[in-house]
Design a protein that fits this description.
The complex is a heterotrimer. Chain A has a six-stranded mixed β-sheet with strand order 5-6-7-3-8-9, sandwiched between helices. A three-stranded antiparallel β-sheet of chain A has the order 2-1-4, with no helix packed on it. Chain A is α/β, with parallel strands linked by helices. Chain A contains seven helices and nine strands. Chain B has twelve helices and nine strands. The longest helix of chain B has 26 residues. By secondary structure, chain C is mainly α. The longest helix of chain C has 35 residues. Chain C has one domain: ABC transporter involved in vitamin B12 uptake, BtuC, CATH 1.10.3470.10. The chains are: A alpha/beta, B alpha/beta, C mainly alpha. Chains in contact: A-C, B-C. At the B-C interface, helix 1, helix 3 and helix 4 of B face helix 3 and helix 7 of C. Chain A: InterPro entries: AAA+_ATPase (IPR003593), ABC_transporter-like_ATP-bd (IPR003439), P-loop_NTPase (IPR027417), Siderophore_ABC-ATPase (IPR051535). Chain A: This is ABC transporter ATP-binding protein. Chain A: Its EC number is 3.6.3.-. Chain A: It comes from Weissella cibaria. Chain A: One of its GO terms (cellular component) is plasma membrane.
Chain lengths: 227, 290, 313
């Protein structure tokens, strides 16, 4: 699928991404992690074509891309059903059930909790049956219970539908618990990528995030407590 | 959705065609003219017009609502009033079924249009200066068979020009609410009177009024300043008083010699009226050319 | 409930129209009309009916323009006056009257064309993706600039406020034609309006032709605003207030569904303001826009205060 080769991105005179080379594995979940300001949002903007690289090549962009941001604006008090049927007429009931929205279909979005809204947006995204789903910090504003529900549901749906996911996650635990691939961005805008097991390198992570980490646990839900 | 859209668009298109046809039909309707000769039901819309028609003893069916400093001639005191000269009430006018409505030429456009489209005959009278006033009186005299009275009236308006050895320079300032002002030229009604009274008006140009700033006025070194108010006289004259206390104005000969005068209603006005002789006399006194 | 609400508004409007037909500086008695009294009918047809039609239709497009702008620009604080469009079209209309006095017959049509010009200029030259309040400020600045230009064009004599007392049947026809054209554009854009509930970024990713829909709406709003301003003058804030009033009565309704109610409120407001303007000080006539301005200023302030309490989208 999508390939980036030696991509440089500037904002004005400031270089944000430097010689980024990576391969987005299709039908897998990739998490994009890195310290604040490392250029994660910029990289996502490249994928949605909101930005163009100054140097380098991007190939293999899929035809259908859907985006889920941390805050999704809704300018009208749509019901969940109206949101889901915006692009298609038929609602997939199994998806709705998985998102725990069956009872809430006729409820207006503003009346739902943040977590329920985000799940509804996930449903909206999936109704479009996209090849690639981009998620920009989807769990940042959610209650803890909803954070895991969301990611868990995402994983299940991804396994069912086999779409490709790339998501920016703030929380390392979540990234390593729910991904197949990890893309790691550092302060200088340089990217390292690899399978989640290979990227679970404590030293590398400690250096990049400038904080001492003692342990990284892959594919399981754990809280990491620092020494 | 597509079908419904198309149906609606189709209906609207038909309506559009219908409206366009209707509009075309409307614009080909010409106003029918009624007889000109027996003009019995007449309405005037400015106070100056009412004064003149009164002097010529012409009966009216409708008169304008008088302004603050104005009174209607006794002859017309009981007649229905149709609003002031700036905004005549068209419904009232129509309900009186006039054969002719007289408008002031300076205020014509909108109302002429509307009255024409309602088949009401209108005539615009030009009172822009003394000469135009006398012409209009003559025309009215002819229309109503009052030529004798018109001649007599015009005789009283025959203001003989004065030719003094030294013609004082006069700045005619027309003030507006808010503090700004325009400078009159000799083409304005009062400017023309000043000319006849032996003064030289400092404003130049082809229009009745022009803009001059205090520098340009100072350069002309006026001997006399005459102020007028376009509206809201109390505020405007107050503004002028404050303006003249400024150093730039204090340096003018007119102000140094206290030759500053207010030309207010009803003697003076924006357009010519029957107070012209009184205005003329006043001007000669102010210019000291009598 | 929503249907009932619209019918009630329609009923009140009908009553207002009948009242407007009968009262004024001269009262027209119903039984005169009934008996076919030609003078009464002539009075009605020549003087009352044109201005009533223009008030009803004009009010509807005033409200409609405001709502449509709020939808496509995703901003509930704006309308055609606040963005400066009304002042812009007024400048074009006055300018053309100064250059070509004969265009007075066509001033409604000229206004509509001016509306298109101003809309195009607005879209090209005014920054678009700014925070809501900033757009309001930019718009007011634009309005003031055009106001100054208009004053210069009319040589500082000040504009007489346009009055509905001089509207002719030709004006009515021009307005109706412009309204129908606008409605046709609106119908073309209608199915895509629902996407404005989403952010612009989302819509882009969905692959829908947002510019085309936006232009259809902007041109419709442009011609409506231009025609309206030529007839009524510049009236601030009402286009922004009317949708809010409609929304008050039906809180959980989507903006698109509020269009009929908003238009009905606009008609109601305008026709009654006009009736008041020409009756209260008869035979003198107040300018309708002056009556409207007296109402709209305080209403807008109330609206802003109320809006800041809720979490606005």
């Amino acid at each position: 699928m999508l390939q980036l080769k030696d991509v440089d991105v500037y904002r004005g005179d400031q270089q944000v991404l430097s010689k980024v080379t990576a391969d987005l594995r299709p039908q897998q979940i990739t998490s994009l992690i890195g310290p604040n300001g490392s250029g994660k949002s910029t990289l996502l903007q490249l994928l949605t074509k909101a930005l163009e690289p100054r140097r380098g090549v991007i190939t293999g962009r899929p035809l259908s891309i859907a985006l889920l941001a941390q805050r999704n604006e809704l300018h009208e008090p749509l019901t969940v059903r109206e949101l889901l049927t915006m692009t298609t007429d038929v609602i997939d009931d199994t998806v709705v059930a998985l998102l725990q929205l069956t009872a809430l279909l006729e409820t207006p979005m503003p009346e739902l909790s943040g977590g329920q809204q985000q799940l509804a947006w996930l449903g909206f995204v999936l109704q479009q049956q996209p090849e690639l789903v981009i998620l920009d910090e989807p769990t940042t504003y959610l209650d803890l219970q909803y954070q895991h529900l969301f990611l868990e549901t995402l994983r299940q749906l991804q396994q069912q539908r086999q779409f490709t996911v790339i998501m920016v996650l703030h929380d390392l635990t979540q990234a390593f618990a729910y991904s197949d691939q990890i893309w790691l961005l550092n302060d200088h805008g340089q990217l390292k990528s690899g399978a989640v097991a290979d990227m679970a390198d404590v030293d590398q992570l400690s250096t990049t995030f400038k904080t001492p980490l003692t342990d990284v646990i892959v594919n399981q839900q754990h809280l990491i407590v620092h020494a | 959705m597509q079908k419904k859209q198309q149906a609606l668009l189709g209906i609207l298109l038909v309506i559009l065609v219908g409206l366009t046809a209707g509009w075309y039909w409307l614009s080909t309707q010409s106003a029918n003219s009624t007889t000109h000769h027996t003009q019995q039901r007449v309405i005037v819309t400015t106070n100056a017009q009412a004064q003149i028609f009164n002097q010529l003893a012409i009966p009216l069916v409708g008169v304008p609502t008088p302004g603050d400093n104005q009174t209607l001639p006794k002859r017309y005191a009981k007649l229905p009033q149709v609003g002031n000269h700036v905004a005549p009430n068209l419904e009232r006018i129509a309900s009186l079924k006039p054969d002719m409505v007289y408008l002031d030429q300076a205020l014509v456009s909108d109302y002429e249009q509307k009255l024409k489209s309602a088949d009401v005959q209108t005539t615009a009278l030009n009172f822009s200066d003394l000469t135009a006033l006398r012409e209009s009186i003559k025309t009215i005299g002819n229309s109503f068979n009052r030529q004798q009275q018109a001649r007599q009236l015009n005789a009283t308006l025959n203001l003989k020009a004065v030719h003094p050895n030294h013609r004082p320079k006069v700045a005619l300032l027309m003030g507006m609410p808010g503090g700004s002002f325009l400078t009159g030229t000799k083409h304005s009604y009062v400017g023309d009177l000043i000319n006849r009274a032996g003064g030289t008006v400092i404003g130049a140009g082809n229009g009745a009024y022009t803009t001059m700033n205090v520098e340009q006025i100072a350069a002309a070194q006026p001997d006399v300043i005459i102020t007028m108010a376009h509206a809201m006289p109390k505020q405007v004259f107050q503004s002028f008083d404050e303006l003249f206390t400024q150093p730039a104005w204090q340096a003018l000969p007119a102000i140094k010699q206290h030759q500053v005068y207010q030309a207010s209603e009803p003697t003076f006005g924006m357009t010519a009226n029957l107070n012209a002789p009184a205005a003329f006399k006043q001007l000669k006194t102010w210019l000291q050319t009598n | 409930m929503k249907q009932l609400y619209n019918w009630i508004l329609g009923g009140v409007l009908l009553i207002s129209i009948i009242i407007a037909m009968l009262i004024g500086s001269t009262t027209i008695a119903i039984h005169d009309l009934w008996q076919g009294n030609t003078q009464a009918w002539h009075m009605l047809l020549t003087y009352r009916l044109p201005r009533i039609i223009i008030a009803v239709v004009g009010g509807a497009i005033l409200g409609g323009s405001g709502l449509l702008l709020q939808i496509v620009l995703r901003n509930r604080l704006i309308d055609a006056s606040i963005l400066g469009i009304m002042n812009g079209t007024q400048f074009v209309t006055i300018g053309s009257l100064v250059l070509l006095p004969a265009s007075l017959n066509w001033h409604v049509g000229v206004g509509a064309l001016g509306g298109i010009l101003i809309m195009i200029g607005w879209r090209l030259f005014i920054p678009q993706n700014r925070p809501r309040l900033q757009m309001v400020l930019i718009g007011i600045a634009t309005a003031m600039t055009f106001q100054a230009l208009t004053n210069i064009a009319s040589e500082g004599f000040g504009l007489p406020l346009p009055s509905l007392s001089t509207v002719t049947w030709a004006d009515v026809m021009q307005l109706l034609i412009i309204v129908v054209i606008g409605l046709m554009l609106l119908i073309l854009a209608w199915p895509n309006l629902k996407f404005y509930a989403l952010s612009a970024q989302q819509v882009r990713l969905l692959g829908f032709n947002e510019p085309r829909t936006m232009w259809l709406i902007l041109i419709a709003v442009g011609i409506w605003t231009g025609a309206l301003t030529a007839l009524l003058g510049v009236v601030f804030f009402l286009g922004a207030i009317l949708p809010q009033i409609a929304r008050l009565m039906a809180p959980r309704t989507k903006s698109q569904q509020l269009l009929p109610a908003t238009m009905l409120w606009g008609s109601l407001l305008l026709i009654n303001a006009d009736t008041v303007a020409r009756t209260i000080l008869a035979p003198k006539e107040l300018a309708t826009s002056a009556v409207l301005l007296a109402i709209s200023g305080p209403l807008f302030a109330v609206m802003l205060l109320k809006g800041s309490r809720h979490a606005t989208t």
